[in-house]
Write a structure and sequence with these properties.
The chain is mainly β. The protein contains two helices and 26 strands. Belongs to the peptidase S9C family.
């Protein structure tokens, strides 16, 4: 081996060592404050890092932390336990509103076939309430996990008796020479979509290549009965689906599939309408005209629907406006809470909402403030927004910059977030929502 080849080999070994060191640093996938009672706080978080040793997947672990909270508000860590989650491929994990139930969507390899299962657990009494194979359902195809955002959704109803999720619509199609094709029955010929068997169907691209014709589904936890939601608008792909406060329907952003299904995972400017689906009448009602919408959510009292909106014909990841709508829907127009910012006056002023991160539980204890993570020049910051006045308060990086902050959960006035920087590995931090003027 020549000197040049030996040098090249040594450099490759150095790169391998550097990658091995960096791969050991886990990143935060999710976090939840699962308990806050009698001065004891419990936090569950999921972490992942590339699995070394030839495993072509991520190594996932779960951390369970117990903390104490004194009367003066000081929070201290008591203990953290790390549990491996390497035996199952978890696609989604979601908690019920009361944190007393947990639903898991996971994939298991049986032979050469991948099968998807849903499991619901009573976390208080430590009981398994439901375990059902979803792959065998003839009503739909693959179920989208939370990695298929914004289409992947999995959430409990407020009564915690049903779980809403999104799957690929199963469309039957036949070839002209299929032996089971009944050519004498015109009705069945039409139903079989003859000639469409090998037609290319567009997907929503990027991270959503499996998402082509999404449909909303729900499962009854007591009976295991699966229902596919009928009456969705033709050619519309539901995304960001959430239950209404009375569990009588859903809110969703219906993306228009015509003329093209362009990428959505990283594109905030795709057109569609905001819909309310009524379960009793099986009707989809337009409550927001054509625009690009994000993350509808209800205030804790269920009286206001809050969402983000922007024009659908503008640049990618431009700033968005925060809007509110009285609920139940009375036909009124949305009220703009935080307007779109086209230019900020100086380096310290609010630059507008963009690259927003929002959790499924984003509300403060008083129900008047929504806590978000948003781009603030070179970092991500946590902000508190008063939905009545529109006042935006920055909560982080006052005095010194610790890094970029990402939202994980809000419970009462406790905020769970992760912070990281190029010279700072991800860490999970918990703190209390400060009083006015006490941001740090």
């Amino acid at each position: 081996m020549s000197n040049a080849e030996q040098t090249e080999v040594r450099e490759i070994e150095k790169l391998k060592d550097v990658y091995s060191d960096l791969a050991q640093i886990p990143i935060v996938l999710s976090g939840r404050i699962t308990g806050d009672k009698d001065g004891i706080i419990s936090v569950t978080s999921t972490w992942a890092n590339p699995a070394l040793g030839g495993l072509n997947k991520k190594a996932t672990t779960q951390r369970v932390s117990v903390l104490s909270k004194s009367e003066d508000g000081i929070i201290k860590l008591i203990n953290t336990q790390t549990l491996p989650l390497s035996n199952l491929d978890f696609q989604s994990i979601a908690y019920s509103p009361s944190d007393s139930r947990l639903v898991q969507l996971y994939t298991m390899l049986e032979g050469k076939e991948k099968k998807q299962y849903m499991r619901v657990v009573d976390t208080v009494n430590h009981l398994e309430l439901l375990s059902v194979e979803l792959t065998g359902q003839s009503k739909y195809g693959i179920i989208y996990g939370l990695g298929a955002a914004p289409f992947g959704c999995i959430s409990f109803s407020h009564g915690e008796g049903h779980v809403l999720y999104c799957a690929e619509k199963k469309i039957k199609s036949s070839g002209y020479f299929d032996v089971d094709l009944d050519c004498d029955n015109e009705e069945k010929i039409v139903e079989s979509n003859v000639g469409e068997k090998f037609t290319l169907t567009e997907s929503w691209g990027e991270n959503n290549f499996d998402v082509k014709n999404p449909v909303l589904c729900m499962v009854n936890i007591s009976t295991g009965q699966v229902t596919v939601v009928d009456g969705l608008p033709s050619g519309v792909s539901p995304s960001y689906a959430v239950w209404t406060p009375d569990d009588k329907g859903f809110i969703f952003f219906g993306l228009e599939g015509k003329p093209f299904r362009l990428g959505k995972a990283g594109c905030t400017n795709r057109p569609g309408k905001l819909y309310y689906y009524d379960l009793k009448s099986a009707e989809s009602i337009v409550i927001g005209d054509t625009a690009a919408y994000e993350h509808p959510t209800f205030t804790p009292d269920g009286k206001i629907l809050v969402f983000r909106r922007r024009a659908a014909d503008e640049p990618h990841n431009a700033t968005v406006e925060l809007c509110s709508l009285s609920w139940p829907f009375d036909g009124s127009s949305p009220r703009i809470v935080v307007p779109i910012v086209t230019a900020s006056s100086d380096s310290k002023s609010f630059p507008g909402l963009s690259f927003v991160q929002q959790t499924t539980r984003p509300w403060s204890a008083d129900g008047k403030h929504i806590i978000l993570s948003t781009a603030w020049r070179e970092t991500l910051e946590l902000v508190s927004i008063n939905i009545k006045t529109g006042e935006v308060s920055r909560l982080t990086n006052h005095g010194r910059t610790l890094g970029s902050w990402s939202m994980l959960d809000v419970r009462g006035d406790l905020i769970l977030s992760s912070v990281s920087a190029p010279n700072r590995p991800p860490q999970i931090l918990i703190g209390s929502l400060p009083f006015r003027g006490q941001q740090v």
